[in-house]
Amino acid sequence: MRSLVALAGVAVLTALTGACTTAEDNKVSTTAAADDKKGTVVEWAGLKSATPGAWKEVTPSNSMRKAQFAAPKADGDSEDAEVVVFEFKGGGGVEANLKRQVATFQPPAGKDKVEEKQEKIKIGGADGVYQEVGGTLLKKTAPFDPNAKSTPVAGYKQLYVVFEKDGITASAWLRGPEKTVEKHRKAFEEWVKAFK
């Protein structure tokens, strides 16, 4: 019995010491997870949480993205969803970011309004907003270039979280084909809630 307790203690200490890593500002640190369900540890506005193991870390497509992951596509969808983490000093604030997300979509066929829902949430003790937007995504190669050409992509959904902490505006999205976003909704929500 004592050997089982000792073994359990060693396992807990190993897991805890393996999870304690440091990262330079604006970097993502990777930690060996205690089980196969955890992936990369993301540091975001001074908080940390491990991604689901199914999400594949990829090189951010531009310098404004702190971290980027591919969430595997659902059966029948043509592409993976993307999970992107942003962190900016200032960053325009919560309301401006929420409006910007809605502006990246057009209403779905037959509707006159972009589908949007919002709810207040807590991320690591900070007040934030969880937003869901759906419709036709106006996909741009250079998102912040007003002259960049956009390609409309129907049937897209985005789950978006934004909050402010210590002068930083932090946000993240899960964006992609509706079915794929729904496949990863629960994992995204749990990942966001786990930031401490």
Polypeptide structure, described:
With 196 residues, this protein is of the alpha+beta class. The protein has a single domain (43-193), classed as Mog1/PsbP, alpha/beta/alpha sandwich (Protein Transport Mog1p, Chain A). Helices cover 23% and strands 42% of the residues. It has 3 helices and 10 strands; from the N terminus they run αβββββαβββββα. It has helices spanning 2-19, 93-103, 178-193; strands at residues 38-44, 47-52, 56-58, 67-71, 81-89, 105-106, 115-123, 126-140, 150-165, 168-177. Strands 3, 4, 5, 6, 7, 8, 9 and 10 form an 8-stranded antiparallel β-sheet that branches. It has a two-stranded antiparallel sheet with strand order 1-2. The longest helix is centred in the first third of the chain and has 18 residues, at 2-19. The chain is globular.
Q: Low-confidence stretches at least 5 residues in length (pLDDT < 50)?
A: 1-35
Question: What is the number of independent domains?
Answer: 1
- Strand segment count: 10
CATH architecture group name? 3-Layer(aba) Sandwich
Quick overview of this protein structure:
The protein is of the alpha+beta class. The chain has helices at residues 2-19, 93-103, 178-193; strands at residues 38-44, 47-52, 56-58, 67-71, 81-89, 105-106, 115-123, 126-140, 150-165, 168-177. Strands 3, 4, 5, 6, 7, 8, 9 and 10 form an 8-stranded antiparallel sheet that branches.
